Amino acid sequence: MNVKYGIVVLVLITFFMVSFITNILGPIFPELIDDFNIGITLAGFFPFAFFVAYAVMSIPAGLLVQARGEKPVMLLAFTLAGAGSLSFALSPSFLVAMFALFTIGCAMALLQVAINPLLRVSGGSKHFAMYSVLAQLMFGGAATLSPIVYSTFVEGITLYKGVGRFFIGLVPSSMAWLSMYWLFAALSLGMVVYILLTPIAKVERNCNELLSVKQSLALLKNPIVVKFFFAIVAYVALEQGVANSISLFLQSYHGLDAHTHGAYAVSQFWLLLTVGCLIGLLLLKFFDAQKLLMVFSMGAASALLLALFGSKSTSLLSFSAVGFFLSIMWSVLFSLALNSMQVGHGAVAGILCTGIVGGAIASPILGLVSETIGSQQVAMLVLLIPLAYIFSVGMWTKPLIKNHTVSLFNRRTEVSQ
User: Fold this and answer.
1) Which carries the bigger pLDDT value, residue 73 or residue 415?
2) pLDDT at residue 416 in the model
3) What pTM was estimated for this model as a whole?
4) What are 123-143's pLDDT values in tens digits?
């Protein structure tokens, strides 16, 4: 196998791991509230602890990648993820949970910053949008699988059968969800070994791509970088705000069990996001990515309204539809941002990944508004605000590098990406 394609495969597997670990918070959210005996607002600080790590770590991660290379940063990241997961599994208290989730969040920030430029170089800048959507496909696939694994583990531990037997003595039967963090620790160790055995050359950067701390911080004043930073904030706030609310919403408004129906609904949300990535791969070969971004934003807004105010069956279908319409947003936003800059892609990726802090603010804000007005249903209308901003990106962005596409009339065109 060509070394570069081998690295692409490693990056895609890493995307899978990032999602598999990150997106368990949605399915277990009701359990965290019950087991720690806390309200919705305080429970919102679990995702806050996880995602605020992106604000702390992403820019230093960009500089660390630039100085040391991608492989050492990826090894450090999975070491941190394993340590954080193990500490949570061994000592499931509120304070340890906050520390562990912050540690895991730091690990995910390191990985996000390292693998995006690595994917761009290994796969080629002109094909970055396509590989980025493929990475989102892996991301969505892992997020779809994570709730299913969770439900299987909970059932096995509760009934003392199947895979549940492996966790006897490791997790309390009343906190079966902790089994996921034992799994995360084991998977992180496996990734450390995999990366150690994989030859990864440090990405060669031109002189004008090697930025100092001062130059990297100066990018924070670049209006293009700032606009795309807030676009990433908006997207992650939207994605996590929906994903972390589905199970609790269905439990509160439609009386559906969080362990089964709730976890299944979250899984379907990510499954449709994955299906959307497949369709997005095709659409990006024929249509203007900016226009697709606008169309998918309008579709997401419509689906969210139906999910919140429709019947039980309509709500279940519509939450899945929201996932479908979110599918291309991350990859299109990220590729538009990097392809709008001539230099410093590693540092820019670090700043953009800092925007993942949007996931930290979504759940606490939704929880606070919900408890203040007494309606989670109305509180979730706040998510229309980040959707409106994402829609606006399709109107104002002007990338420097255009993505190679195929016209419907068998002639090649250059479409803005």
Assistant:
1) 73
2) 41
3) 0.74
4) 666 666 667 767 877 887 888
As given in the structure block, the two tokens for residue 383 are 């998510």
Distance CA 123, CA 218 (A): 29
How far CA 314 is from CA of 19, 358, 366, 417, in Å, comes to: 27, 28, 22, 34
